[in-house]
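Weekly structure sync, notes
Attendees: PL (lead), two postdocs, one rotation student
Agenda item 3: pending single-chain targets
PL asked that the sequence for the first pending target be pasted directly into the notes so everyone works from the same version. It is reproduced below exactly as submitted, 95 residues in total.
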Amino acid sequence: MLFLATIIEQEGIGTVITHQGHPIAFHLIGLELKKRSKVRWISDFRDPWTSIGYHNKIETYGFLPKKHKRLEQLVLNEADKIIVTSETTKQEFQI
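Predicted structure, written out during the meeting:
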């Protein structure tokens, strides 16, 4: 992470865009970069995070769904801009 923050500073990068190859990885990296470098951050959701159909099937520990929901809310609250691909996801995230 420190490497990316250093590159952002050295190159004068003003905006970072993360997309959700896997939300835990990319969106949380964007969140941390925003904190470390004060860069503008755009979070691009191709699909919903916690409400996507397969999400409940892969969670095997009781605390993980709540943790994912908290992380999702953190990303949604801290990003400077959110991009979504559907009106349904937009409405879901506005709640």
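Discussion points:
- The longest helix spans residues 23-37.
- The two ends are 31 Å apart (CA to CA).
Action: rotation student to compare against the earlier draft before next sync.
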